[in-house]
């Protein structure tokens, strides 16, 4: 949900070739991951990923800062389609939602979770949306300041007074998007 990746040959690319990676807790609401010399499209890219969440919120705010990339480089993020009974949508304006069930720990197949996932990408970063067999993907590029911003949201059916079906979850996502 909301993983940041490179985008090459119409496929997500993991961030696995870095010189160093550090993690920092900035405060009670924010963390930061810094990757130095991520070799992307043959060039070393410096990247800082900042994740922030407000108390009592289901939204995680993500800001990626990049240096050293080429203006033609593309990246991606998105949300997955759930394993069982997935319902979902993707909107060309830069938001998507999914609802369904998943077994988070395959060693315990009896522990089934029904969840809703959502994502909304800043319009300044959005290149296009793509649905593949496993994901609702947002193809993104940095803005003029080298930043990519998006928000991911989640809900679980078992939450007290939570969403109980896909239509409730999707209504919530559509009513809370800024990309209308």
Quick structural summary:
The chain is mostly beta strands. It contains one helix and 13 strands.
- Overall pLDDT score: 92
- Which secondary-structure class do the elements indicate? mainly beta
- Roughly what fraction of the amino acids lie in strands? over 45%
Termini gap = 22 Å
The coarse overall form would be globular
Q: Total domains, how many?
A: 1
Largest β-sheet summary = 8 strands, antiparallel
Helix amount: under 10%
Number of strands: 13
The helix-strand sequence is EEEEEEEEEEEEEH
Could you name the ranges where pLDDT drops below 50 across 5 or more consecutive residues? none
Cα Rg: 17 Å
Q: Which strands sit side by side, in order, in the main sheet?
A: 3-4-5-6-13-10-9-8
Task: Output the number of helix runs.
Answer: 1
Topology:
Elements: E1 5-8, E2 11-13, E3 20-27, E4 30-40, E5 43-53, E6 59-67, E7 75-80, E8 84-91, E9 95-102, E10 113-121, E11 126-131, E12 135-140, E13 147-156, H1 166-176
Antiparallel strand pairs: 1-2, 1-7, 3-4, 4-5, 5-6, 6-13, 7-12, 8-9, 9-10, 10-13, 11-12
């Amino acid at each position: 949900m909301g993983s940041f990746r490179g985008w090459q040959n119409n496929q997500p690319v993991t961030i696995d070739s870095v010189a160093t990676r550090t993690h920092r807790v900035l405060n009670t609401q924010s963390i930061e991951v810094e990757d130095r010399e991520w070799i992307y499209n043959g060039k070393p890219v410096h990247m800082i990923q900042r994740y922030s969440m407000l108390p009592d919120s289901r939204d995680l705010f993500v800001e990626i800062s990049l240096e050293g990339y080429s203006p033609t480089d593309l990246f991606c993020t998105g949300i997955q389609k759930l394993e069982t009974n997935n319902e979902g949508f993707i909107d060309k304006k830069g938001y998507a939602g999914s609802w369904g069930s998943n077994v988070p720990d395959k060693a315990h197949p009896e522990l089934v979770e029904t969840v809703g996932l959502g994502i909304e990408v800043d319009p300044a970063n959005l290149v296009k949306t793509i649905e593949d067999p496993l994901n609702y993907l947002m193809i993104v590029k940095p803005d003029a300041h080298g930043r990519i911003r998006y928000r991911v949201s989640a809900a679980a059916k078992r939450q007290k007074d939570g969403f109980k079906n896909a239509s409730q979850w999707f209504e919530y996502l559509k009513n809370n998007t800024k990309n209308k």
